[in-house]
């Protein structure tokens, strides 16, 4: 028996409703913030990720799926979404568009060769957003508000937004110097990777999963304390806008995030829910003012975030999120070989009219057919046999009310639609079908 690759998973038909509901919420909130969907390829040339994500990051140094294609070029399955979106932004000259600020979002699979565990996979889904064209702190605040609104729409409450600023070039350079001076005497006490990072990219040391509690890191200088006045003002403005929007956050001076391209604001959203286990960071993001330029585009600033959708679904488990309900409007029971052609025609008419409808394809007996009705959660069951054919009638039962009626077979579709249009709840106070007074 073939097995799925390690670190991957199947979304079975019974589970896809949850994914649809999640994606629907994402798309709805994206509309509110005026972000439009962008779809870029899952594979890109390897250089793109080396250049954007950064050579010394865990993602590029240890986690990418790379392969040489038949044309002898090195390709990589995208480990994250920003690089491809920026590549597309430049290649399609979106910076020259009539709209000075381009706001896009994406939903799709990402690939990282990681040690699989709950909330950590080798193929996983991300929903991310990117806004290009403005360095205004309003946009940093908007992107955080957008991420928080997605969680609100999904009714995920117990979350913390952690926020920090790395500043721009000058702040980052001053901080890097201070950090190197601080680490130098104790560098040999840190892990092997950190010793390499000291040479290649010392900021990455703060993001080390092994040494993060080592006293030399706990006591290390913080980027926030090395911000130029201008960069500090940018950060203060982001905080002011968040305060104005009543968005809660905490400032986490240790937050640096795992990608090289960030400048100014970086943030993460952590959910405090048992169903998440150790992987409780559901969203990460920040500003990247020089990424477009470093990938060959003009000097255009950007800011974005990415959510891990599996982790969002784990968070949703704790609030008994059911997803889109799965049901049929009609299950048509066709009895007898001679009724099949007619039955198929009726079924197809109902479907074309917009009803979710199905039949039994296995010629099961009545018991087997009723089992399928239950399984499919069908609202109406219509029985079409030799008698019905002879009399042009059809028997139809409403599984919700238990009512059964016999109608002209040509009325099947109209009857169901009319019944579906009726208010679904009778008023429990006065027992009328619908009741404005009791508001039920
Ligand atoms: P982590 O610290 O958990 O490895 P990260 O910093 O590598 O996360 P990002 O690159 O910022 O993650 O990706 C954004 C979000 O994507 C994460 O917050 C997380 O929710 C999700 N994510 C990242 N890697 C994985 C993975 N291997 N499996 C599932 N979700 C993931
Ligand atoms: Mg990671």
Task: Tell me what you see in this structure.
The chain is an alpha+beta fold. 35% of the residues are buried. The longest helix is centred in the first third of the chain and has 17 residues, at 16-32. Helix content is 35%, strand content 21%. A hairpin with a 5-residue loop joins strand 3 (65-68) and strand 4 (74-77). The strands form three sheets. An eight-stranded mixed beta sheet has the order 1-5-6-11-10-9-7-8. The protein has a five-stranded mixed beta sheet with strand order 13-12-14-15-16, with helices on both faces. The protein folds into two domains: 13-168 and 228-318, BirA Bifunctional Protein, domain 2 (2-Layer Sandwich), CATH 3.30.930.10; 328-421, Anticodon-binding domain (Rossmann fold). Helix 1 (16-32) runs antiparallel to helix 5 and helix 5 (137-153) runs parallel beside helix 9 (229-244). Bound molecules: adenosine-5'-triphosphate and magnesium ion (MG). Residues 80, 112, 114, 119-121, 124, 126, 258, 279, 281-284, 306, 308, 310-311 line the site of adenosine-5'-triphosphate. It comes from Candidatus Xianfuyuplasma coldseepsis. Its EC number is 6.1.1.21.
């Amino acid at each position: 028996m073939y097995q799925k690759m390690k670190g991957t998973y199947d979304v079975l038909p019974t589970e896809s409703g949850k994914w649809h509901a999640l994606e629907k919420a994402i798309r709805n909130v994206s509309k509110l913030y005026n972000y439009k969907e962008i779809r870029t390829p899952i594979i890109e040339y390897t250089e793109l990720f080396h250049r954007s994500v950064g050579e010394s990051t865990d993602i590029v140094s240890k986690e990418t799926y790379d392969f040489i294609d038949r044309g002898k070029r090195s390709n990589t399955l995208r480990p994250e979404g920003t690089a491809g979106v920026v590549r597309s932004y430049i290649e399609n000259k979106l910076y020259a568009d009539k709209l000075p600020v381009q706001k896009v979002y994406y939903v799709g699979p990402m690939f990282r060769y990681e040690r699989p565990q709950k909330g950590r996979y080798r193929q996983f889904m991300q929903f991310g957003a990117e806004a290009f064209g403005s360095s205004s702190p309003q946009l940093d605040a908007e992107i955080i508000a957008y991420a928080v609104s997605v969680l609100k729409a999904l009714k995920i409450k117990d979350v913390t937004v952690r926020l920090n600023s790395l500043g721009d070039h000058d702040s980052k350079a001053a901080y890097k110097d201070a950090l190197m001076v601080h680490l130098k005497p104790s560098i040999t006490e840190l892990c092997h990777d950190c010793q390499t990072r000291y040479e290649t990219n010392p900021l990455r040391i703060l993001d080390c999963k092994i040494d993060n509690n080592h006293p030399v890191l706990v006591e290390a200088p913080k980027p926030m304390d090395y911000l130029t006045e201008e960069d500090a003002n940018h950060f203060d403005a982001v905080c002011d806008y968040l305060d104005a929007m009543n968005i809660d956050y905490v400032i986490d001076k240790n937050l640096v995030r795992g990608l090289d391209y960030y400048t100014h604001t970086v943030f993460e959203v952590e959910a405090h829910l048992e169903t998440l286990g150790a992987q409780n960071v559901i969203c990460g993001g920040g500003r990247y003012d020089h990424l477009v330029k470093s990938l060959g585009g003009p000097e255009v600033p950007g800011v974005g975030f990415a959510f891990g959708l599996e982790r969002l679904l784990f968070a949703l488990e704790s609030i008994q999120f059911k997803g889109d309900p799965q049901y049929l409007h009609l299950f048509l029971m066709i009895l007898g070989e001679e009724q099949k052609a007619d039955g198929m025609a009726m079924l197809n008419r109902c479907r074309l009219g917009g009803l979710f409808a199905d039949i039994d394809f296995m010629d099961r007996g009545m018991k087997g057919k009723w089992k399928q009705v239950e399984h499919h959660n069908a609202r109406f069951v219509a029985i079409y046999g030799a008698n019905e054919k002879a009399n042009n009638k059809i028997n139809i039962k409403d599984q919700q009310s238990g009512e059964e009626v016999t109608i002209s077979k040509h009325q099947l579709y109209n009857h169901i639609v009319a019944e579906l249009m009726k208010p679904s709840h009778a008023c429990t106070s006065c027992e009328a079908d619908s009741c404005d007074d009791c508001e039920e």
